[in-house]
Amino acid sequence: MTLKLKNSLGGALEEFRSLEPRKVRMYHCGPTVNQPIHIGKFRSYLLADVLRRHLERSGYEVLQVMNITDVGHLNEFEEDVVEIAAGRTGGYAWELAENEMRLFHTDRRALGIRGAHEYPKAREHVDEMIETVRLLEEAGATYTEGGNLYLDITRYEKIGCLCGSSLEELVELQGDSKTTEGAQKRNPLDIDLWRTDALHQMRWESPWGSGFPGWHVECVAMSRKYLGEYFDIHTGADDNINPHHEFEMAQAAVLSSEGGDRDPLSHYWLHSGPVSVEGQPMNKANRNVVPVRELLESGIRGAVVRVALLSEHYRDTLDFGEAALDRASDAVNVILGFCEHLAGLPAGADEADAPVAQWIADTDAAFGAALDDDLDYWKAISSVAGAISGLEAETVGSPARALDALGDWDRVLGIL
Which of 159, 218, 246, 295 is the most buried if burial means most Cβ atoms within 10 Å? Predict the structure, then answer.
């Protein structure tokens, strides 16, 4: 079976075809390091992890990049969220960012998420962002108002193609969700490229004054540096679609040497769905935002948190709570318990005649088919746990061969 992915760009289930034979370049929107990272964001990082693991198990050479946002991410009041968080502690923004980034990696490793090949930090790539903004200016797509530089969104005719909304609908949504107090944009959707601010802790000299880059230009500049102008896959959470990924595409379209002949930046766009907690949408208003760190510190195993966050298809809403954790714990315990039991058995029959061969073949077929069907992790792990439950370990002719198969499946499951 061939891998098929639901492309957010167009909404179709598409057969995956890499741009280069057996090579994949993929970019993932990583954390803004102003606070402990919650389960909704980690669900999107797990999507990226499962995708990479399945591609590598399928024989692809993968180059994975995940950014770290440590400057320029503004809240609804046009304030940098990293500097606001640092101000609460009386410290410096870069010190808080470094500490939260370190803790993010600790949490990531606890959940079995492989390290990306590159974790570019925004504040270490300001030169690349300045060059990206210069090219946008050179293309005649920018204007200056109130000392800040903006991209004219009308230069991108396909705005709204990811979220399925028109320009007018997006303007209305933007007006409902965020104030533009202090900003002097011609259009509420025009993209912040460079903010001048003499009081901002982290600021750099640029052709447009002393200030800092806008959040939406960061991923464009860093993805182009590490992956090139056009790459295979871009992933994120559903709340990245609008406006962040729409705005990335707009900038990439202006910069593209291909003009309008192809969709900008990435071929495939994948997004994880929303998260609720015990039936209530997870958000600040409901006061039910769950940091992964809090779960780990409570004693819940990282493997259980991992599987719980993958216990619904990545595109569907995940209702996180005791039921999801119990279901995940059961699956993890079945597989780990079977591995421990196999390890204690004596060597079995000749490998070629072992009755385990058919069991491995049948389970592997179901496992691979589930992952090829738009990365259905829960169906994949359930196929392994179900196959184990229907087999008595003592009947396995070759425990070593069964253990090898479980190790191979764990290249994607990530729980052993």
Answer: 218
How many Cα atoms within 13 Å fall on the side-chain side of residue 170?
A: 23
Q: Within 10 Å of residue 121's Cβ, how many Cβ atoms?
A: 19
Nearest-10 crossing angle of helices 356-372, 399-413: 10
For the stretch 123-137, pLDDT in tens is 999 999 999 999 999
- In the block, which residue shows the tokens 């318990």? 337
HEC readout, 180-242: CCCCCCCCCCCEEEEEECCCCCCCECCCCCCEEECHHHHHHHHHHHHHCCCEEEEEEEHHHHH
Residue 86 pLDDT more than 60?
A: yes
Q: At 9, is the secondary structure helix, strand, or coil?
A: coil
CA dihedral 193, 199, 200, 201 (to 10 degrees): 150
The 3-state DSSP composition of the chain as helix, strand, coil percent (nearest 5) reads 45, 15, 35
The predicted structure's pLDDT at residue 140: 95
Residue 232 has pLDDT above 90, yes or no: yes
pLDDT given at position 182: 46
Q: Are 411 and 348 in contact (CB under 8 A)?
A: no
Nearest to 49 by CA among 410, 361, 412: 412
**What is residue 400's three-state secondary structure?**
helix
Q: Give the count of beta carbons closer than 10 Å to the beta carbon of residue 240.
A: 23
Q: CA-CA distance, 391 to 149, in Å (whole number)?
A: 65
Q: What is the mean pLDDT of residues 97-104?
A: 98
